[in-house]
Structures are given as C-alpha cells and as structure tokens.
Amino acid sequence: MQHIFFFALVALALAAFAPRYFTHAQDNGVVIAKATPETPNSRTISISRASNGHFLVDGMVDGRRLNFMVDTGASAIALRESDAARLGIHPAQREYTARISTANGSIMAAPIDLNRVEIGNLIVRNVSALVLPDEALGQNLLGMSFLSQVHWQYQSGKLVLEQ
How far apart are CA 163 and CA 24, in angstroms? Predict the structure, then answer.
C-alpha cells in the first residue's frame, strides 16, 4: 500500500512541476474554457483544448472561482498556496507532511479536504487535495481526486466529463 501511495505522490509531483516550464495561461492570453453543458440541465460537459494544448477550465471550490489545468496524471487536486489562501486555507508549516519526490527533488505539500468542487454543473463533495508552494506549481491542477468521481473521455478533440 505504501508503494502505491508513493507512486501516486511521485505522479502528482511530476504533474505539479511540469506546468512551471510552460508560461502562465493568463500571461499569454490563453483562454480558459468555461465548461459547457452538452444539453440544457445536462450532467455532461465539454472542455475545449486551449491554444497551448492543455485543457484549462474555470471551476468553483467551496464557492470561490479558481482556474485549473486538467491533469489525469495528478493523483489529487493540487492548489497553489496563494489560491488556497483565497479560499481561506492557510496550512501551517507543520501541516506540510506529504513529501512529493520529483525529478527536480523533493517538496512538501499540505494535504487538505475541499468541501465542494464544481466544474460546470458537475459537483463533487469531500475532495482530497494538496497545497503546494507557489514556486512549485505554475497552475492549479484538477487531478484524479475529482476526475475519479466522474466519467471522462477524450472525444472529438474535447475532454468530456459526465456525472
């Protein structure tokens, strides 16, 4: 079990460090997609690929708007410290207990639980997440702690999520 957890943390760390090598979406004029329902009142949404090749989406976490990059390689939602602070989440230094190993070294993250994460009209409650220092994470990641609660697939050039 420890090996699985370690592998998941390594995958998250790799996914967390990759975005820092890309420019920020807001700085390049990359449009962050609004998840659009397939039909009115549908529990299915489509996310178009951004011009930088990633699936970027605007979501709501505990009632506050946050931008995410969809990352199927991240085991959990990963939040930048500054965005976590906007949510009222301020982990103390002693709460950074999850060691994440990456190709660039190790970093500590603070495990947290989010009450409610919304992408379009999809809602997932009690979602595990990690808070990472801003310098370690270029973009908030919508990882598998959310995605495993919905059905997702790549279809016709779009990422389709269904609940």
Answer: 29
Alpha-carbon distances, residue 84 vs 13, 36, 87, 121 (angstroms) = 18, 25, 5, 22
Give the pTM. Answer: 0.74
Going by C-beta distance under 8 Å and a sequence separation of 6 or more, which residues neighbour residue 107?
13, 16, 99, 100, 132, 133, 136
CA distance 77 to 137: 12
pLDDT digits (tens, 9 = 90+) for 76-134: 999 999 999 999 999 999 999 999 854 456 899 999 999 999 999 999 999 999 999 99
Alpha-helical regions (H) of 32-139: 81-86
- Tell me the per-residue pLDDT of 21-74, one tens digit each, with 9 for 90 and over: 333 334 444 445 555 555 555 688 999 999 999 999 999 999 999 999 999 988
Picking from 163, 143, 155, 142, the residue whose alpha carbon sits closest to that of residue 67 is 142
Helix, strand counts (H, E) of the chain: 3, 11
As beta bridge partners, residue 61 has: 64, 117
Q: In what order do the strands lie in the sheet with 151-155?
A: 36-37, 44-48, 158-162, 151-155
